[in-house]
Design brief:
54% helix, alpha+beta, globular, 4-stranded antiparallel sheet, DUF7691 domain-containing protein, DUF7691, single chain
Length: 199
């Protein structure tokens, strides 16, 4: 079985601030901008919706309003939060992490650690959506790298030597380079970080 990470460069405080904000304008803008994507998501989860799960738009509305939530269908609120991150942010390249199998994330984490870089890609696969939302029983998983963590990671990378980098497996080094690319993009936008969803 293969997995995937979907990553966004986003103002994390702004995205989290949407939860329970009651911002009707935001809800309407998301509904308009993602109308086709929301409909496609409903087609994908049609059997769950028939069994009582909210539609994706209903889930987005609930997240923005701060409820009511149906904890039995927590996955929809996780995906709704992903939609909010997409609305406020932009996609980051995930070629090294979509798809992936087995212990790939752990291998990349090991490479990061060998270089003295403190962030971990497993944060995105084994984390959880913001605590204000019902926790999904399964997917999506969620994690984030704060602006401070991105800054520290970039500083640590810049302190590494060519010899240290070349000692890593070639594919792992390519993935580490992708991670550093995300942190570099985050640093170009003060206050922004990385939000990652694992599937």
């Amino acid at each position: 079985m293969s997995y995937s990470l979907t990553l966004y460069l986003v103002d994390l405080e702004k995205a989290r601030g949407a939860i329970g904000s009651g911002d009707d304008k935001l809800r309407r803008m998301i509904g308009g901008r993602f109308k086709t994507a929301l409909a496609h998501a409903d087609e994908w989860f049609d059997s769950e919706i028939e069994s009582g799960a909210p539609t994706r738009y209903e889930a987005v509305k609930a997240v923005i309003n701060g409820g009511p939530y149906d904890a039995a269908h927590g996955f929809q609120y996780g995906y709704a939060y992903q939609t909010i991150c997409e609305f406020y942010g932009r996609f980051l390249d995930n070629n090294d992490f979509s798809p992936f199998r087995g212990e790939w994330l752990e291998m990349v984490d090991e490479g990061l650690a060998k270089l003295g870089i403190g962030v971990r890609v497993t944060d995105f696969m084994y984390g959880s959506i913001p605590s204000q939302l019902p926790r999904p029983e399964h997917l999506p998983c969620y994690g984030e790298w704060s602006p401070q963590e991105c800054a520290q990671a970039l500083t640590a990378w810049e302190a590494t030597t060519a010899e240290q980098r070349d000692a890593l497996d070639r594919e792992v080094l390519a993935a580490v380079n992708s991670c550093i690319g995300w942190t570099r993009e985050a640093q170009a936008r003060p206050g922004w970080g990385v939000a990652g969803f694992g599937f």
